[in-house]
Backbone:
């Protein structure tokens, strides 16, 4: 009976290459793959091993689950993911769930069917479906997943509230991020704590999601309910930019009569008028570092920190009375 | 020697299912796949067929090549693509080239290695690498690819120029899109033709790309070189929004002293102040229709129209003197 050595000899390749091809544990060129197939056929090499290894072949694919690709924050995360993985020879399967959790489960099943080597998820899902596939959570917190990269919400919430406090606020409205997002809750807690410590009162409005349509609804509601508002702490740049527009149409002067702070620092926040002061989250770095962690995980490398929390900073532009300094 | 019937009998499945599994021509559950693998091993079924069919297995993957995922136009195209393909059980591999053509070739190779069933490309690449993989071009024109979905540039260029003409322009500056993009050239030709027919003169500025940083540079150059400008026809919303900001900082009143028209109608164009008048391109529909065409192509269905040109329209908002009507 033929052995792996015979296959390697006939194919004119090393045993290591043939073994890699059959176990799917490393890169093998298409040309080598063809030679190996030919040799396997020619020699009638044990089908058991071949069939099994081929079925088990690990792909060079990573599944990426995003809550909403039309929110400009997530394309930046995706860019970081792609930049790291492409260099390592991995490809990214895109799963955009448009904040629909049913879709998250469908994608996770599809990732499994495609035999992905790992999953990067910016969605909080409680599903255990994929428990044997290495997974890193990006920009979210998921109790069920050990590994994650996100940025510092306690710091971010504090910085946003402190910046608003410097502008002599009399009527603050805080918009809470969606309740389903753990990190939005952490950030809100930090905002509230900072305002309470300063003994400053505020009103609270709950938002439903980070989707554009929902942000517009929240902005309208806010001005209808609190026309006296002079300071707004928004849970995302999408919310803040929507508010700037609503404020313009209702003739509020920004920042003299109304100061606004965003969260995220998406590219467009630099382009609106006035330019949006916001908390900068390192979206690209979250993606890049997350991919790096996943790569280590997929290759059974030692991982020193299972949760990486990246610092944020205040990006001072034109929508705060104090300037923010 | 064992036959496919023996494998089917032992697996408790139909010959058709076993054949599907081995040729990769249809859906086979993970459970059935395991039973088949077991039967193949048990019976020592001809390795030649197994190895060959496994290597040839068509994936349920489609490669999507995008020029720049941080340009909000393309996430909308991607959304359309995904919405169609997910329903059909296909997954999308993301290839974001960041306007770097070298990267396009790397991605095309990676798509091939992953044995994608088809390619959707929003990049003009002259590479023939993937000539045997069904391909549809999205939002671009590529002479080498028979199938494509994009929107009507002749109509779009004309509509933009006509809208600007209604605002009594005295100093028009037209920004030409990147020279490498065929469609930008077609659009420019239509703008120029419309202005010439109206016997109105204009200045022309060449832009290098649709990237944000390049757009900022172009905006600065434009105002430095043509401080008397009172009308600008931009090749993208990114360009137009960058111009609105530069205009604000240089104290031009929009639209009274300076009217601006964009192109694309990305979500953010509704949110800037003043709200941007622009030519609406159906980005989502380009993605959705392109995926539909690719699906027909992958399944050897008859395709009536190989090029689908979708209509555009003027989206009237607040940056034109005439209102645009």
Residues:
């Amino acid at each position: 009976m033929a052995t792996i050595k015979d296959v390697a000899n006939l194919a004119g390749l090393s045993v290591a290459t043939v073994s890699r091809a059959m176990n799917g544990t490393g890169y093998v060129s298409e040309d080598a793959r063809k030679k190996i197939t030919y040799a396997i056929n020619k020699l009638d090499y044990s089908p058991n091993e071949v069939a099994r290894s081929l079925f088990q072949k690990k792909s060079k694919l990573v599944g990426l689950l995003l809550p909403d690709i039309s929110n400009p924050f997530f394309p930046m995360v995706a860019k970081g993911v792609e930049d790291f993985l492409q260099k390592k020879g991995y490809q990214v399967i895109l799963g955009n769930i448009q904040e629909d959790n049913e879709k998250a489960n469908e994608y996770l099943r599809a990732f499994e069917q495609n035999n992905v080597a790992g999953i990067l998820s910016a969605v909080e899902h409680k599903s255990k479906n994929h428990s044997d596939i290495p997974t890193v959570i990006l920009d979210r917190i998921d109790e069920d997943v050990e590994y994650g990269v996100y940025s510092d919400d306690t710091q971010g919430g504090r910085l946003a509230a402190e910046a608003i406090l410097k502008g002599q606020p009399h009527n603050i409205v805080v918009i809470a991020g969606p309740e389903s997002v753990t990190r939005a809750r952490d950030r809100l807690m930090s905002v509230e704590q900072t305002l309470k410590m300063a003994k400053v009162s505020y009103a609270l409005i709950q938002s439903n999601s980070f989707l554009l349509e929902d942000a517009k609804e929240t902005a309208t509601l806010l001005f209808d309910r609190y026309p006296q508002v002079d300071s707004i702490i928004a849970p995302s740049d999408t919310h803040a930019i929507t508010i700037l527009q609503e404020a313009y149409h209702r003739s509020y002067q920004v920042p003299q009569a109304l100061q606004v702070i965003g969260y995220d620092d998406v590219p467009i926040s630099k382009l609106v008028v006035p330019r949006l002061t916001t908390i900068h989250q390192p979206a690209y770095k979250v993606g890049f570092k997350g991919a790096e962690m996943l790569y280590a995980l997929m290759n059974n490398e030692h991982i020193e920190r299972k949760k990486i929390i990246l610092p944020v900073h205040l990006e001072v532009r034109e929508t705060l009375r104090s300037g923010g300094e």
